[in-house]
Amino acid sequence: MVEPQIGAGSRNPGAPPEPDARTIDQVRARDAQEFERLYRAYAGRVYALCRRLSGDPVRAEDLVQETFLRVWERIGTFEGRSRFSTWLYRLAVNRATDVLRAEIRRSLHETPGEPAEDAMPVARGADPGVRIDLEAAIGALPAGARFVFVLHDVEGYGHEEIAEFGGFTVGTSKSQLYRARRLLREMLSR
Amino acid sequence: MRHEDFRAHFHELVDGGLSEAQRRELEAHADACSDCGRELRALREIVAAAQALPRSIEPPRDLWPGIETAIGRAAPVHARVQRAPHGWRGWFATPAVPRWAAAGAMALLVIAIFSLGRDLDRNRSAAPDGGASNSTAPFPAAVSGLELQCRGAGQLLQASLRLPVGPGTRAAATSLADGLISGLSILDRSIDETRQALASDPDNPALQRMLTARYQQKLALLHAALLRVETT
């Protein structure tokens, strides 16, 4: 499989510096201290990605742990042809896709429309004029629309790669993106 | 240009991919039509806001101890579970999870545990002594004990489950139970892969630690589920 040259790395301001070859070699040699340093450098970045993809902070914690366990297990297969961060984010997206696949599939077959009323991120009893924030609105999107929106508009992946991640067509990726944007606009203008 | 034509393409106008002529035509329409212009501005605002979101968000708690345990560097998981629940255990120990949701999750938990039971039975029948599988023979001694403990915890969990729960709670708890099923399947897959690797490299200490850690994780997961069942 061709490792991506676009995607998370293409829209990544403030990203931690890429680990050097020595660090990668030490983690390959099972240096847990070096691995912890790598985790500390990238935990926030991976958590943000997983939280937005899953829409669930608790599930995101598990995804982060599972992603780094996979790094530990598979670091020997990292050949350095792409940046480490690109490889790491791909592991995270693949793991999130595995966990969310059933929800994404279900949401792709829903009739396009608004999310359920009780899923709309409006605080009960709050000032109805207060605009909800984008993070909460993303979390309220249907799983498929959220998955595509986060990867495309937040992370900068292309539709071909998103379709490959999700196991659906490029056309589905585009239609879910447009659906997400429409729903977000509706939620944010309430 | 009709509004419908504009709206059929205005996402592509934001994302790129249109010819220069198409882009100019759409921009001209947006300048002339206040409704379409407003739609386009709103779309651009959303995309710009998404791109401006922070790239990094610190996890609400330190996740490293759970990873450290899993890779076999720290104390066994079961020694820590009461103090600092992590990973899959966290789903059952998180105070934010309503008790009714946990009760509903137990309904789906049955599926996972009975599947686990089938696997255990299959392993047992494959072993001539009716106990631990022969496949543990070349592996660390601790693994055999952990495998037996996992089997015991699974059987205890089966016996402790009390059903039924209502259909509403069942639906609401789907994601929670999915997590347990997912956690068990991940661990079992990892155990199988590590066993295979150890079969060809039996003296590899990293693999031995990894296999032990996976069984410790599996046992901790079952213990946490059992604790939840007992307190629900």
Protein described:
The complex is a heterodimer of chains A (190) and B (232). Chain A has helices at 21-28, 32-54, 57-74, 84-108, 134-139, 143-154, 159-166, 170-188. With 190 residues, chain A is mainly α. Chain A folds into two domains: 16-100, Rna Polymerase Sigma Factor, Chain: A (Orthogonal Bundle); 110-190, Arc Repressor Mutant, subunit A (Orthogonal Bundle). The radius of gyration of chain A is 18 Å and the shape is elongated. Chain A starts with 20 loop residues before the first helix and ends with a helix. Chain B has ten helices and no strands. The longest helix of chain B is centred in the middle third of the chain and has 28 residues, at 99-126. Chains A and B meet through helix 2, helix 3, helix 4, helix 5 and helix 6 of A and helix 3, helix 4, helix 5 and helix 9 of B.
Binned, the helix content of chain A reads 55-70%
Shape of chain B: elongated
**Biggest beta-sheet profile of chain B:** none
Q: What would you call the shape of chain A?
A: elongated
Number of helices of chain A: 8
Report the helical percentage of chain B. Answer: over 70%
Distance N to C terminus of chain A: 44 Å
Oligomer: heterodimer
> Could you name the CATH homologous superfamily of the largest domain in chain A?
RNA polymerase sigma factor, region 2, helix turn helix motif
Cα-to-Cα separation, first versus last residue of chain B:
63 Å
The greatest interface between two protein chains, and residues involved on each side, is:
A-B, 51 and 42 residues
